[in-house]
Amino acid sequence: MSKDTEVTMSKLKVSEKDVELNEPEDSEKQPMTIGETNGDVKVKVVEDEEVKFTGLSKEELLKVAGTPAWVRTRWALLILFWLGWLGMLAGAVVIIVQAPRCKDLPPQEWWQKGVLYQIGAVESFQDTNGDGVGDLAGVKQRMDDLGALKVKGLVIGPIHTTVANDSANTNLIKIDERFGSMEDFTQLLEAARKKSIMVVLDLTPNYRGVDAWFDLLTTSNSTFQNSVKEALTFWLEKGVSGILLGSIEQLKVPNKLDLLEDLKNITTNFSTDGKSRVLIAVTDDHRLGNILSQLNETSSEFLSSRYLLNNLQPLSVSDLAKRIQDYLEAAGQRWTSWSVGGPNVGHMASLVREDLLRLYNILLFTLPGTPFTNYGDEIGLQDVVPGQPAKSIMHWDNTDSFGFSSQLPADKSNINLNISVMAQKDDKLSLLSLYKKLSELKGKERSLLHGDFVQLQPEPEQQVYAYLRVWDQNDRFIVVLNFGNTAATVALQHEQLPSKATVLLSSNPHRSEETLDLQKVELGPSEGMLLKFPYTA
User: Fold this and answer.
1) Strands, E, within 187-293: which ranges?
2) Mind listing the pLDDT tens digit for each residue in 282-308?
């Protein structure tokens, strides 16, 4: 063979079975093709077939699995798995143990979760039939406005029939026709229920007379006392969520404690199916000792008083701080409530300086306990004669009748001429907007609902009152109130305070939500602020 056609067998590395020598069967009969030379060897290389791995058979697997190496490997992997699992479990336990534990939430009833709105003078709230007298249907008509205030309850009345100082013509279970009918009252209850607002009925017997509980001879009579008990049962069966008894200091009977305990038991017996009923006592006494005495004597869920005023006059900052601290200490574990004014003594705006009106609202909504406000306090409604019962008609709009009635009011006064719900409703800088913000915060922030109360001590010469509200791992709040008519700068110090806090709201509607250095808090004249800071472990 020539060198050109020589095939080196070692280079091809083919086996004999892969080589086919194509010798012609009859070389003489096979003509040579062009390019072939005599003696050529034709080599056919067969391509390797693809090799597929089919795995081990069951028998082979069993055979391998039983070998000592695989047994040791399996045990090692199993031990590692359980060691890893136990390690993760131990880590989780350590994290749980070391993490700060949340306090159990204290049980709270509906009246402890927000503001109670008093409509003591139903005749002054909203008239629907054009007779110039507010009625129950009017309260129902304004339920959307009341819902927007985020109040938890309405205290309505008294609305029962009575003749001043005449117990014989007093019927505690009959509605005065001027206010409407029992059907009107039932519809009011239903409208309030749809807004998740509870209704408390004021059953103060002689509300049009001099002595709210008539005279001693009358109230000592068992027939009269039984009529009061029957009236509580009647109205609770009608669906009210509580009963309020006013001027409790005027109830002077030998069995006063037993009587109040019996009345409390009646409301308790109706607290079923998750529907708690409340008995509220109110005192108009402004004397500190007497108020604390009433607090201990009454069997009601809580006592409401005009404790934040001294004979209808604002207190000094030092007196205010002492009063609040003394009251909280005297109350102990009992629930507290606060008000500035009331149905019998007038609206807040008539009892405090105008420039302090917003500040007092901040105070009222941030103290521990339930705030009470009068109808119209949310817009700064005033009384014609300060210190007299709150009877000013409610101002809903700026029409001649103020939206109260289709008739012009007989006792129209210019004192509230530019004050109305409509004028403030869409104004983010208004008193109404501040009231709504405070009411919302009171109802949702745990530190304000049931947090600890810690008084802070700014410089003694400053007319500034400050305190801290804290609950567990929730956001904390600082209340700083400047009762002076000049600017003040105070340093707030306490072991639970951070170095800085953020302004959540202010009585000055133009103040921005800025971050303040607590060592140098600057307040404008008559400014109150609610500051906020987060919990840190």
Assistant:
1) 198-202, 242-245, 278-283
2) 988 877 778 877 877 776 777 888 788
Side-chain-facing half-sphere of 116: CA atoms under 13 Å:
32
Q: Strand 116-119 to strand 370-374: parallel, antiparallel, or no bridges (unpaired)?
A: parallel
* Residue type for position 95: I
Single-letter amino acid code for the residue at 28:
E
Edge to edge, the sheet with strand 153-156 lists 302-305, 278-283, 242-245, 198-202, 153-156, 116-119, 370-374, 337-338
Closest Cα to residue 111, out of 304, 345, 322? 304
Structure tokens at 439: 């009411």
Size of the chain in residues:
537
Angstrom CA distances, 139 to 130, 249, 378, 404, 447, stand at 14, 29, 16, 11, 32
The helix, strand and coil proportions of the chain, stated in percent and rounded to the nearest 5, come to 35, 20, 50
* pTM for this predicted structure: 0.81
Share of the chain above pLDDT 90, in %: 61
Could you write out the DSSP letters of every residue in 385-452? STTS---PPP--SSSTTTTS-SSPPTT--GGGTT--HHHHHT-TTSHHHHHHHHHHHHHH-HHHHH-E
- The pLDDT tens digits for 118-139 are 999 999 999 999 999 999 999 9
The strand pair at 476-482 and 528-533 is best described as: antiparallel
The Cα–Cα gap between 234 and 386 comes to 36
Report CA Rg, the chain.
Answer: 43
The amino acid at residue 80 is L
Tracing tokens 């009231």 back to the chain, one arrives at 435
Mean of the per-residue pLDDT values of the chain: 86
Q: Is the pLDDT of residue 4 over 60?
A: no
Closest CA to 315 of 342, 340, 334, 296: 340
